[in-house]
Amino acid sequence: MAGHSKWAGIKHKKAANDAKRGKVFSKIAKLITVAARDGGGDVTQNPHLKLVVDKAKSANMPNDNIDRAIKKGTGELGTVSFYELVYEGYAPSQVALVVDILTDNKNRTASELRKLFDKKGGTLGSPGSVSWNFETRGVIELPADSISEEDLMDLVLEAGAEDVKVEDGHLQVLCDPQSFSKVQEAISSANLTPSFAEVTRLPKDTVTVDEKKKAIKVLNFIEEVEDHDDVQKVSHNLDLPPDLLDQINA
């Protein structure tokens, strides 16, 4: 696991290197630019921008990079055009994927993703073909030993959270996306550090893959899609038995 829930964190990632870190910063910078473009460059007045800047800081993105991305969005460093797109389809073993895209060239991105899916055994679908199986939720997870479930519930329900439960050794907080920032602030004010915090898509139904060879093929496919420069997020409904995931990560 990557420190968070199975539907968001089933991965076997290569060790982070400078190139990969640079790609992460580039992707977050796009999000910051779009957030600043759409709602202004003041994080105190733009909740979406604050959310993305917090994500950047969690990834240890330098402040200069953050400031530059905000200025691009507000037009201080020239105009930029990014398009937000969503692709849907299937990885091998009929694992459903919803792919969030941020690109300055829609035709290039479409061509490259189509080639990637075709080459690696995936299938691109039409809009709505798999997104019906996902719902958008704010998810925050903390180590189970950081606070009791009861105390956490008292803390976050008042801030707008919908539920608290134990998931794979973590305390998991679920909330409406609109309440995400307030719930995050409540947790931060209690000097608690989440192991995962993101607005993401959760699958209503999952696909279990219990053969190691097939599982690795799916994981490699998801990782390749995620590594594309224009891909911001890949939501999937893959479920792997814990013992199989341990084997893969060993």
Count all strands and give the number. 10
β-strand percent reads: 15-25%
Calculate the mean pLDDT score and round it: 87
Low-confidence stretches: 1-5, 10-15
Shape: globular
CATH architecture verdict of the largest domain:
2-Layer Sandwich
| Oligomeric state of this protein | single chain
CATH class categorisation of the largest domain: Alpha Beta
CATH topology type of the largest domain: Alpha-Beta Plaits
Question: Care to give the gist of this entry?
Answer:
The chain has helices spanning 6-9, 18-39, 47-58, 63-74, 106-120, 149-157, 180-189, 212-227, 242-249; strands spanning 83-91, 95-103, 123-125, 134-143, 161-167, 170-175, 196-203, 207-208, 231-236, 238-239. By secondary structure, the chain is of the alpha+beta class.
